Fold this sequence. Notes:
Order of helices and strands: HHEEEHEHEHEEH
Structural class: alpha/beta
Number of strands: 7
Number of helices: 6
Largest sheet: 7 strands, mixed
Oligomer: single chain
Shape: globular
CATH topology of the domain at 65-189: Glutaredoxin
Strand order of the largest sheet: 2-1-5-4-3-6-7
CATH class of the domain at 65-189: Alpha Beta
Amino acid sequence: MALRQQLLAAPALASRRRAFPGEDENYAKARKSLLAEEIDLRRKIGRVAEQRRALPPGPLMKDYRYKDANGAELGLADLFGDHDTLVSYFWMYGPGRERPCPMCTNWLGAVNGNGTDIKQRVALKIFGRSAVERQKAFAQERGWQALDFVQTVGDDYAKDFNLLNADGSENPALVVFKRNDSGIRLFWKSEMAAGMADPGQDARDAPDIASLWSILDLTPDGRGTDWYPSLEY
């Protein structure tokens, strides 16, 4: 077993920071302190990812059914293609919605930009309760070309993953499946539900999978408290 290399303390690494011309002592001190925290956060993210990869096998999955863009009915196993891992996102664009969820749309727009690269490593499918034709029409409107949409047949998938609310509204879900000789198992599902958010905070994952919020977190005003993405501006 390889020995884990001893890491330098974050403040020691932060002390290697190069100052900018004209910065005063207060900024330099505060920025160095923040840099140490950022290094600790980077390491924490790495440890959490390692712990995620070490999860024991999850439950075996049912043979959920889907329809693809050609109208063919497929099973969950058919969505993997040549890969043994499937990354899926259930977006809030059910038949009862006139337009999709703006935040789902924002997230999928960013994923579309990376879709071709992602599919070199894993299968990537977008699940929706609306007909594939309806989903693809919106994708064409947005200029998405790297995302593959499928329709969930029936509501078994949505119900089993707690994606349907009593009032008929939907919840999004990022779910990763793993296929091996024993079948298809749940590997990981985003489970930071609204009830797990801190006071005054929107439900969010850690790290935040939405590049929108990750970028705004770098700015002086942050995410704000009264702004949300829109489908049109």
